[in-house]
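Troubleshooting log. The previous structure file for this entry was overwritten by mistake, so regenerating from the original sequence record. Sequence copied from the archived sheet and checked twice against the printout by T.R.
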Amino acid sequence: MKVRVDPHTLERARERGTSQEEIEDVVETGFAIPAKFGRMAKAKVFDFGRNRHGKRYEQKRVEVVYVVEESLAVTVTVYVFYGKWEV
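Regenerated output below.
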């Protein structure tokens, strides 16, 4: 499925510490998570191993909320969480 990353999603991505490439990767290969209002969502855990806001995090979890229009996934927003997850 093709992915169109909305400009709003890119703004949130820059603020929250992810990229367009990671967003597309999540939609294409991530695992499904619950979403509200008839939308879809997927998440994926990435190795991070860096500092963010003065604290070191081993991983980050990127969650993308999107809608499907025909055969196109259009992003709504993205959330990024930092920590350590069992994969």
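The domain at 2-83 is CATH 3.30.2310 (YaeB-like fold). Archived copy saved in two places this time.
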